[in-house]
């Protein structure tokens, strides 16, 4: 694949970094110079070679470091992974989807061999080899959802569909942007989206729910979401707010470039075949401001988005306190020139 896995940390000494390749393929979320919350769904089909859209589940240079961080979070707080009893079949659906996708897209790293319900899974980067019986949880060290999401980047929720609604009833959530699986589990679609400002009045979530209830197996979709994070913390959970929240008060003009990160979620949604549940992978990507501004188009555009964003959204995205500081720092990289359409960097 042309890269090695980074030996890096997302806590304590914060050695996380993006290579030049990772910067170029970063999923910059703004296709224009302004932003308003929207459904912004598109088919999740194979995209530009080398991009985060190339494969169903992106595996990049941060894979092993992210899996190590997930293990640390789960040891500190096992409730970051929960599944209500009726969601076990959806967990098997998710396991099958991820194993088949990775074995197809990254055959040099992952293998899946099937002989009826007798399966053999090989994960070379994590040095895992597992023989198990599909649909028999006693043959795995964890439940099916937990087993495969301990080996897959990003957070995951599984949503049961009933009563013309979606209910979040299982998940592996260790890299979230200030929301809690333990708090949200059992909630309906509108309940867990309640904190989002402006979108409800515009009918965004009514339209999104109507769309998702009709989601078909074999036709996944994707969208972007984004926020800001001081320091490259994957785990910005409300449970740990005392550990990361105060960091917002410590930024200066001298430290913004290295410490302030744009945090982008590539969210995909999949209808699962046996359970009819919806899988919702939420893959988090981080980039330092000093890395991002190496792409002139992104530097100009981010300055304009941050400067002009509605205050309620700036608060929700986590940077209202520091907005003036961020605008001042980013303004150094905005020469006033027009930006080209779309989110790809200019070659």
Concise summary:
The chain has helices spanning 20-24, 63-76, 88-105, 144-149, 181-184, 189-192, 204-213, 241-244, 256-259, 289-292, 296-308, 311-316, 323-331; strands at 42-43, 81-83, 110-115, 118-123, 128-133, 155-162, 165-172, 221-230, 260-271, 278-288.
- Report the structural category: alpha+beta
**What is the share of helical residues?**
25-40%
Give the strand line-up of the largest sheet: 1-8-9-10-6-7-2
Please count the beta strands (DSSP E, at least 2 residues each): 10
Approximate shape: globular
Helical stretch tally: 13
The share of residues in extended strands comes to 15-25%
Please state the CA-atom Rg, rounded to the nearest Å.
Answer: 20 Å
Average residue pLDDT = 94
Q: Give the termini distance in whole angstroms.
A: 21 Å
Unreliable segments (pLDDT under 50, ≥5 consecutive)? none
Biggest sheet architecture: 7 strands, antiparallel
Give the helices and strands as they follow along the chain: HEHEHEEEHEEHHHEHHEEHHHH
Explain this structure to me?
By secondary structure, the protein is an alpha+beta fold. 29% of the residues lie in helices and 21% in strands. The strands form two sheets. A seven-stranded antiparallel sheet has the order 1-8-9-10-6-7-2. It has a three-stranded antiparallel sheet with strand order 3-4-5, with helices on one face. The mean pLDDT is 94.
């Amino acid at each position: 694949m042309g890269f090695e896995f980074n030996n890096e940390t997302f806590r304590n000494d914060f050695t996380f970094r993006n290579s030049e390749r990772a910067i170029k393929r970063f999923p910059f979320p703004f296709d224009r110079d302004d932003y308003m919350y929207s459904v912004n769904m598109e088919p999740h089909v194979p995209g530009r070679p080398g991009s985060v859209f190339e494969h169903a589940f992106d595996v990049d240079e941060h894979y092993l470091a992210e899996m190590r961080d997930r293990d640390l979070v789960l040891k500190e707080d096992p409730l970051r992974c929960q599944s209500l009893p009726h969601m076990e079949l959806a967990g098997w659906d998710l396991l099958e989807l991820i194993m088949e996708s990775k074995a197809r897209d990254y055959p040099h790293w992952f293998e899946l061999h099937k002989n009826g319900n007798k399966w053999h899974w090989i994960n070379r980067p994590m040095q895992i080899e597992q023989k198990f019986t599909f649909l028999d949880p006693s043959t795995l060290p964890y439940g099916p959802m937990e087993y495969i999401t301990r080996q897959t980047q990003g957070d995951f929720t599984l949503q049961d569909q009933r009563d013309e609604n979606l209910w979040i009833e299982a998940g592996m959530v260790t890299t979230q942007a200030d929301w809690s699986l333990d708090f949200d589990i059992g909630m309906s679609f509108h309940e867990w989206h309640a904190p989002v400002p402006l979108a409800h009045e515009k009918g965004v979530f009514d339209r999104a729910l109507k769309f998702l209830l009709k989601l078909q197996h074999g036709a996944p979709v994707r969208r972007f979401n984004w926020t800001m994070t001081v320091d490259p913390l994957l785990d910005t959970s409300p449970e740990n707010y005392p550990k990361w929240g105060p960091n917002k008060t410590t930024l200066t003009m001298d430290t913004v470039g290295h410490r302030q990160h744009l945090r982008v979620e590539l969210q995909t949604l999949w209808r699962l075949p046996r359970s009819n549940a919806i899988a919702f992978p939420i893959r988090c990507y981080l980039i330092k401001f000093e890395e991002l501004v190496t792409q002139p188009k992104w530097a100009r555009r981010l300055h304009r988005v941050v400067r002009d964003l509605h205050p309620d959204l700036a608060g929700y995205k986590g940077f209202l306190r520091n907005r003036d500081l961020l605008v001042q720092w980013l303004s150094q990289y905005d020469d006033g020139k027009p930006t080209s359409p779309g989110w790809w960097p200019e070659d």
